[in-house]
Amino acid sequence: MEQAIIDLLMRAESGLTDVSILDLQPIPGGFSRETFKCDATAHRAGEKVTLPLIVRKNPPDIEAILNTSRAVEHNLIEALRNNTKVPVSRSYGYELDAPPFGEPAMVLERASGSGQTSALFNGGPDEDQCEDVVRHLCEVLVELHSADISSIDPDGSLIDPRGVGVRAGSWDEYMDSTFEYYIGEYKTIAWDPVMMMLLDSFLTLRRNKPRPMPLAIVHGDFNPANFLYENGKVSALIDWENSRVGDPREDLGWMVLMDILSNTQVMSYPKKEGGFLAYYNKLTGNNITPEELGYFTLFGTANIAVPVHQSVARRIRKEHMLLLPLYLIQSSLPALPAMAQLMGYPGTTV
Length: 350
Description:
This protein is of the alpha+beta class. The protein is built from 13 helices and nine strands.
């Protein structure tokens, strides 16, 4: 892998010479990519430089949860870096052919800052930064949602990045084609009778669409684990593989659920502005309601539930014997009671 990283860096910057890779090691990350960190030392214009790097590598197809493209992720990151003020790490490039890295992969700059966002809350050591960090996080999200789609996604790759049939000619078309995807895939996730609750959520969402809103570039996994911070600012928004053209309320709704599951309080800040939603509404004028937030919490849960439970179902059917999908059962089933609350099941409270 070291030589593959060197070759990619030298393609990205033809002026680099004497490139060496130091301390390549795997690091904990999400379930969908294999992630590594290392440093590259090199000479650039006669001066020695050190490049802190992250390598994001696809798992083998049999293990894949999200079928996403490193090329699409690279192009999005670089478009954001060059056209917006959204703080992102530079992407040096990608390799779609399997042999160099073993699977398709991309190499990014390793951003500075802390990823231990739990330290901002509940009496953590960085709680003094919380108000400023979350204020900036909200401003970053507004910057992302305000970005011109044609500039960020000129070839339309983000309209249906998973290749599941989503269309985005209008807000209604986006929503309706997404429901078609959810409902059409139910047969692939019905590994247990409890999955009927997911089907009910798909039908409930389709039946109760909220008011339309202009589509935007959405992060797709906007949660407390996917930003870094330092000195009271967000230093990088990370993990863009599930990004797409969608409804901006999706990012807010997903943060609501992940805030609860992560035992953080992102949505309660900045307190001086009345919380994250109030500040977002102040900056955008969108006047998003708590009810809409609940709808898109359910919508976001459905969006990730389909590929996760497809992975689980493949393991249940013994198409492979990997352990990770069994772990996903433990981490995903607790979301079902929250879905029941959002749908107003008897005996639940919202």
